[in-house]
Specification:
Length: about 525
C-alpha cells in the first residue's frame, strides 16, 4: 500500500470529520453545500428530480450556466433511473450527481418541498475522479440534515397555519361572525367560551410565546390566546370566568389572572375587561385596551375596566331608526364586481378603521391603498367624512354600536314609520343628557380645569394634538401630558387606538360644549 493511498484515506477522514462538524451548524445544509463548493471548485446544489433548485450555497455567486446544467442533469438521471452518475456539461465542466435516498421519510420531505421523490446532490465543476467518493460521503450526512431542516420547516408551516387560523377566529369575533368563529375554534381547540373576559397583555414582543404559555397554564387550557395582529407587543386572551378559568388562587376576582401575569412577568402591563358574551368581543377588547392605559401608570402593572359606558341609554327606537337610515346605503350596497367587498365586509372595514385607524390594514390583512379606497367608498355611501372628521367618525361609531346592540322591547308597528331623527336630536334627549353627564363627571370633578379644557379643545380639533396645543397656546408635550392625566381620570385610552374619543365627542356634543 503506497503513500498515495494513505494520503487519500487521510484526506477522506478529514472530509468526514469536516462534514460531521458542519452538520451541527444552524443552517447545516447550506453550510455543507458551501464547503463542497470550495472543496471541489464548482457549484454544489440540492436539486429536485424535476429540476427544481431546492438549496444552494450562494445562489447569487453561482455561474450563470451552472444552475441550468445541474437541473438538466437531475432530470436526465431521473429518466435513467440511476442513483448516481457523472454527466458531461458545457465548457468541459462535468455534473456529478448522487441521489440522497430511496424515498421514505426523505421522499416525504421532498414532497413537502414540491417534489414527489428524493432530491439529488449535484456538483457542477471540474471532472475530478475523487469527486464521486466525496459526494457519496457528503450525501449521507446531507440526507440527515435535509430531513431535519425540512421537518423544522414543516413544523413552522403548521405553527403559522394555526396562528393564522386563530387570528381569523379573533377577526370573525371582532366583525360579529360568531357562528363561523365557533366552527373554526371547535376544530382547533379549545372551544370558545360562551362568556369571557378579554385580556390585553403588553410586553416584549419576543416573549409573547412564553407569556401565552403562562396564561394557558393559569387558565387550565381553556383560554383562547392570539398574538395581536396590529401591535407586535400585544397579546389578546379570551378567558372564561370562574374558578376553572382564572386559577385556584383568586377564583372570584376579575383581575385574578391579570395579577398573576403581572406578578410572573415583570415587564408586562395587563388590562382586563368586564365579562361579556362572545357577540360583544369588540366591546370587551376596547374595555381591556382602556384598562391597559390605566395599567401603564399603575404600580401593580394591571387594571380592570372600571367605568360603565354602555350605550343602552341611547338605544331608543328613534336612535335605532336613525342608525338604520345612516347605515342603509352601506347595508344595501351591491358591489359592481364579485371580487369587490360586499356590505358586511365594508361594515367590518368601517369598524376596524374606527378602532385602529391607519393600522386597520394590518388587522384586515389588506394593502393600505386598498384600505384608503374602501374608506372613501364607505364615506361616500354614508355621506360622512370618516377619514378626517371626528364628527363623522363619531356618528358612524354610534350607528355601528346601535346596529349591533341587542334589541330590547319590540317596536310597535305604525301605519307610517316616523322620519328618522337627526344625531343632534338624539343627543338632546334627556336620556342622552344623563349619559353624557355620567361620562364627563370624572373629568370635571378631578380638576384642575385645564385638563377638561384640553380634552374639549382636542375634540374640537378632530383629536389632532398639535392643533389642540396651538389653540390653547401651550406646548405639544404639555398638551400630551394633560391628555395623559385625562386618561388616568377617565380610565380610558385617548392617545392610542382604540380611543374613547368617539364617546367623549358624543358626550361633549350632548352637553352643548361643541
Amino acid at each position: 500500500m503506497g503513500p498515495a493511498s494513505s494520503e487519500t484515506r487521510a484526506d477522506r477522514a478529514d472530509d468526514v470529520l469536516a462534514l460531521a462538524r458542519l452538520a451541527g451548524e444552524p443552517e447545516s445544509v447550506r453550510a455543507i453545500l458551501a464547503w463542497l463548493s470550495r472543496r471541489t471548485g464548482g457549484l454544489a446544489a440540492l436539486v429536485g428530480p424535476t429540476g427544481t433548485m431546492l438549496a444552494t450555497a450562494e445562489p447569487a455567486a453561482a455561474p450563470a450556466a451552472a444552475a441550468p446544467a445541474a437541473a438538466a442533469a437531475a432530470v436526465e438521471l431521473r429518466r435513467r433511473g440511476a442513483p448516481s452518475a457523472v454527466l458531461g456539461g458545457e465548457g468541459g465542466r462535468a455534473v456529478h450527481l448522487v441521489r440522497l435516498g430511496p424515498g421514505g421519510a426523505l421522499g416525504a420531505a421532498a414532497a413537502a418541498a414540491g417534489e414527489g421523490e428524493p432530491p439529488y446532490l449535484t456538483v457542477v465543476g471540474p471532472d475530478d475522479p475523487r469527486c464521486g467518493v466525496l459526494l457519496a460521503d457528503a450525501a449521507r450526512t446531507l440526507a440527515l440534515c435535509w430531513r431535519l431542516e425540512e421537518a423544522e420547516r414543516a413544523r413552522r408551516r403548521v405553527e403559522s397555519a394555526e396562528a393564522h387560523s386563530r387570528e381569523a377566529v379573533l377577526h370573525l369575533l371582532m366583525v360579529g361572525s360568531v357562528p363561523a368563529a365557533q366552527r373554526i375554534a371547535g376544530a382547533l381547540g379549545p372551544a370558545l367560551p360562551a362568556l369571557a373576559r378579554v385580556y390585553v397583555v403588553e410586553g416584549p414582543g419576543h416573549r409573547r410565546p412564553e407569556i401565552a404559555g403562562r396564561i394557558d397554564r393559569v387558565a387550565r387550557g381553556r383560554a383562547w390566546i392570539v398574538p395581536c395582529p396590529v401591535r407586535s407587543n400585544h397579546l389578546i386572551a379570551l378567558v372564561p370566568p370562574g374558578p376553572e378559568g382564572e386559577g385556584a388562587e383568586e377564583p372570584k376576582r376579575a383581575d385574578g389572572l391579570a395579577r398573576l401575569i403581572a406578578r410572573q412577568v415583570p415587564e408586562c402591563r395587563v388590562g382586563a375587561s368586564a365579562e361579556h358574551p362572545l357577540r360583544d368581543t369588540p366591546v370587551g377588547y376596547e374595555q381591556a385596551f382602556h384598562a391597559l392605559a390605566v395599567a401603564r401608570g399603575a404600580p401593580q402593572r394591571y387594571a380592570g375596566f372600571g367605568r360603565h359606558t354602555d350605550i343602552t341609554a341611547l338605544a331608543s327606537p328613534e336612535a335605532r331608526r336613525w342608525a338604520r337610515e345612516l347605515l342603509g346605503p352601506c347595508l344595501r350596497y351591491v358591489p359592481p364586481r364579485r371580487a369587490d367587498p360586499g356590505a358586511q365586509e365594508l361594515l367590518g372595514t368601517l369598524g376596524s378603521w374606527l378602532s385602529f385607524g391607519g393600522a386597520a390594514n394590518r388587522h384586515l390583512k389588506i394593502h393600505r391603498n386598498t384600505l384608503a379606497a374602501r374608506i372613501r367608498l364607505i364615506g361616500d355611501l354614508l355621506g360622512l367624512d370618516i377619514g378626517h372628521s371626528l364628527a363623522g367618525q363619531s356618528a358612524a361609531w354610534l350607528a355601528l354600536r346601535l346596529h349591533g346592540a341587542p334589541h330590547g322591547t319590540a317596536e310597535t308597528p305604525a301605519e307610517k314609520p316616523p322620519a328618522p331623527a337627526s344625531l343632534d336630536a338624539l343627543l338632546s334627549s334627556p336620556a342622552a343628557g344623563l349619559w353624557a353627564r355620567a361620562q364627563l363627571r370624572p373629568l370635571d370633578e378631578a380638576g384642575p380645569a385645564a385638563v377638561p379644557e384640553t380634552v374639549r379643545a382636542w375634540l374640537r380639533a378632530d383629536a389632532r394634538l398639535p392643533a389642540a396645543a396651538a389653540a390653547l397656546g401651550i406646548s405639544l408635550p404639555g398638551a400630551r401630558k394633560r391628555l395623559a392625566r385625562a386618561e388616568e381620570v377617565l380610565g380610558r385610552s385617548l392617545l392610542r387606538a382604540p380611543s374613547a374619543k368617539y364617546e367623549l365627542w358624543l358626550a361633549v356634543r350632548a352637553s352643548g360644549s361643541l
